[in-house]
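Supplementary Methods, section 5.1.

A reviewer requested that the exact input to the structure prediction be made available. We therefore reproduce it here, unchanged from the version used in the analyses.
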Amino acid sequence: MKRAYVFIVFSILSCGVFARDCNNAISQSDMNICANIAFKQSDKMLNDTFQKIISSKDLGFQKILKQAQRSWIKFRDDDCNVQSYPTREGSVQPMIYANCLKEKTDLRIADLNKILTCEEGDLACQLH
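The structure derived from this sequence is encoded token-by-token as follows.
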């Protein structure tokens, strides 16, 4: 619960209420906030990419993609919990968790972009 509360606080702070120079963050608090800001930017890009795909595909594809996305989000969050677990009591934990979320989200964006660039019926197009 503590980690969830800390993550929520960082999410609120990262919404632009406080301007941060994330290229020169020195304190752990600033690094944690900046990591969360970077993740939120990737998450927005992921959602935008997902919406582009959903709007361009038939209902059957939409259904299976939505299910895959829900499963992927659960995997991403669970895996980042595992990866950040060793730092669970430390001040660096929110940064480790957010960096993990960002890294996995960026990889997912790349995978989804492959769907966007594949022409329907192109059997040579590799989605993975």
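The helical segments are 2-13, 28-56, 59-84, 93-117. These observations are discussed further in the main text.
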